[in-house]
């Protein structure tokens, strides 16, 4: 299973990384890449670097550790679990591709504060706000099931932390600044990573709640 995991990881990087950038370049004349590979001290850079480290630990480190003889975790080590991992990983890759294509010409890697692209709320983005990350999590959890050792588990944990920081502290504030109430309304209806979960509160609802609490406090003081 270690070799199969390495192959699936390579396919994922080729299709969702280099392949998607090539498609974007041919369609728009722009690869869509907004990442800076040199550390710039930004939260986004460190968040994406953390997620990348998690990807590498699961997709490369865990299979190589398996080949080197690192014992699998007994609680996760079962032939059915490894077989399920293959199916889950393939499903995640396909879902990620569908989500990427749903973005159309708005697809980007990283954030450019000076750039404004249309807010996509249809297709996969009508189900969850971050379907590409959701699909990536599914795919890498599948890879971890294929080589269920400590390196894989650690990689999934690091990946999840990086993705959470990137989405919550970098992307969502950027989208609020760029799209304003349109994004807030969208985020109040659609979950962050899973349908219905992680929805944001509308600004007017927040103000109404604050006004209600203030009124109650005034009544209590009166």
TrEMBL record:
Domain of life: Bacteria
GO molecular function, one term: transferase activity
Cell location: Endomembrane system
Transmembrane segments: 45-71, 83-103, 132-161
Primary location class: membrane
Membrane-topology descriptor: Multi-pass membrane protein
Pfam families: PEMT
UniProtKB keywords: Membrane, Transmembrane, Transmembrane helix
InterPro entries the record matches: Phopholipid_MeTrfase
GO CC annotation terms, alphabetical: endomembrane system
Name of the protein in question: Isoprenylcysteine carboxylmethyltransferase family protein
